[in-house]
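3.2 Worked example (two chains)
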Amino acid sequence: MDTGLRGKTALVCAASKGLGKACAMALAQEGVNVVITARGAEALEATAAEIRAATGVTVTTVAGDITTEAGRAAALAACPSPDILVNNAGGPPPGDFRDWGREDWIKAVDANMLTPIFLIKAVVDGMIARGFGRIVNITSASVKSPIPHLGMSNGARAGLTGFVAGLARQVARHNVTINGLLPGPFMTDRLKTTSKGMAEKSGRSVEDEILDRAKASPSGRVGYPDEFGSACAFLCSAQAGYIVGQNLVMDGGLFNSTMG
């Protein structure tokens, strides 16, 4: 399938590793020139070299924290008029809500709700003017099926999802779509970090915690990042213009619902 994306430009956040990297790679494989951001410059440059070698597209790196004003400004300076925006930021830490103060909550909302909103605000009017835009927000399956020990993530990401539900329907007539990709357990550093926290409480190994996550899934495994990247590329394709304001859960069937 020709996705119609060759020659377009994407800004992909938190793309040095994990799901962000998978999305950047999948888009690059469709001929999209990518601008990738991450806090760690060394990992970011290694990812950029890998994408260039695999695809031959132009890859621009912007090292910085996308959850800060300075980080967003730097990313937008390098890519002021993207055709595609993939919002992504690391989730807040797990824990008991009784231990979280106001600053913890503000940090979570800044990173996982306000940062994507500000980036959308910066690029959506240009997309409207050009008659094409694809925005994909990487959130979490916890938006539809809350995870008890990830309360800050549940709340902040659900707030973003509610905001986008309204905005997506305002811009769709201009061939600008906004959708969410909601990952369950994928083999990423995030999974390893949350599993480590659970292992410390249970006295078990990280490997055993991840294995339990795999066994709990109807698919019998955790996800592979390249699967996630391919789904992102499809949502960004010319063929996906009629998919508006949706939230695609990718969790191997863990979320048990007739209506999705």
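3.2.1 Second chain
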Amino acid sequence: MAKILAIESSCDETAVAIVDDGKLLANVVATQIAVHEKFGGVMPEIASRLHAENITVVLQQALDESGVSLEDIDAFAVTRGPGLIGCLHVGLQAAKTLAMLYDRPLIPVHHLAGHIYANEYIGELKFPLLCVVVSGGNTELVYMKGHMDFKIIGRTQDDAVGECFDKVARVLGLPYPGGLPIDQHAKKGRHTYNLPHPYVSGGKYDVSYSGLKTAVINLVHNLKMKGESVNVDDMARSFEDVAIGMIVDKALAAAKDYQVAQVVLAGGVSANSYLREQMKSKLEGTGIDLVLPPLWCTTDNAAMIAKVGEHLYERKYFAGLDLGVDPNWKIDEQLTLLD
């Protein structure tokens, strides 16, 4: 093992973490949620500028907390993608500069691989396994035969589930990000609104959220046009039942078909209490192990990037200083980048 410093800047969190032989020494995150909240979503240009302002401060704080100097670092890991291109550039340029100055390896990490491997902070991954990756920008089912072996078997055909939560929250007058407030209101509501289960014409494990989002928006607008009030609790419950139900159904089918030993949740929406409860309930008695990430790992952070960095360091998976970002990088291309 080695001392690895990791940088994450794919969206609206500037994060630096340091690990030493598997032990997390520091995990510092500067979030921009308060800035973007007034816009109802992340403003890419503002996010990039804030990353540039925050990166050196977060880096120094991580070094101070860990008691490690940059000379002690064996490698620098960084999120290469997917994400917002300007945001990714800030993190990558910082990592490349450090790698050049201290003559250390540079390790490119896929953001979603980080979310998956964050589960290693609470337990061992057991293969073959199914990863349910659900966030504001991504919704995928990823099958893994072994470490760093990713195969996408299902994905959203349009909107990510987290994006759908944010848009529905906005039309209901709830704060950004929308996942937590919808989850909280849903606990107090009943399924009284008739919402469609979107038709999916793609793969067996694919999902679709654009139609569901549009249905909620149209229903809310129509009710208001008629002068009728919207029961936010009931709408949140009705929406969450359908949105989360799609994920649970597809995940259970894939887990059975692929005969996995374990199912792991990953990404920001994995913090959703209803998703966690449903997965626990549906997998109980099946013999399939379920791993739920700690809540601190569901939001973007660099500790998860460092965890992947450790695996890639052992494989000597190092990139040159000509490495560029890729906002559309696919997770199954993680190990093919340097081929």
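3.3 Remarks
The beta strands are 3-8, 13-20, 23-31, 75-81, 106-110, 129-134, 139-144, 151-155, 262-266, 289-291.
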